[in-house]
Amino acid sequence: SLRSHSLKSTSRTVGAEALGELAAQTEQAIRSCDWKTAEALLPEIKLWFERIRNILSEIAEAPEERLQVLL
Predict the structure, then answer these.
(1) What is the largest CA-CA distance in the chain?
(2) Nearest 5°: phi and psi at 32?
(3) Model-level pTM?
(4) By CB count within 10 A, which of 19, 68, 69, 71 is most buried?
């Protein structure tokens, strides 16, 4: 639950609302001991995590003029 809470907060901080929402749903499922739901959310969390990680990597490596286009 602590990890899902951290993922929720961090995702929302960087504007990854979809990932933050999935983490919030996972956090709630864990608190309710709804392990089936928590487990079912994992593939989509992994997918969004990879998408966001790739975008942030591009931004970090982009020259300043390319950064303007990405934003």
Answers:
(1) 48
(2) -90, 5
(3) 0.72
(4) 19
Q: Is 20 helix (H, G, I), strand (E, B) or coil?
A: helix
- Res. 4 pLDDT band, cuts 50 70 90: confident
Q: Are 45 and 19 spatial neighbours (Cβ–Cβ below 8 Å)?
A: yes
- Beta strand residue intervals within 1-61, DSSP E: none
Give CA 37 to chain center in angstroms. Answer: 17
44 exposure class (CB count in 10 Å sphere: 0-12, 13-18, 19+)? middle
User: Whose structure tokens read 């901080």?
Assistant: 13
Residue type, position 47, single letter: L
Look up residue 58 and give its two tokens. 């591009």
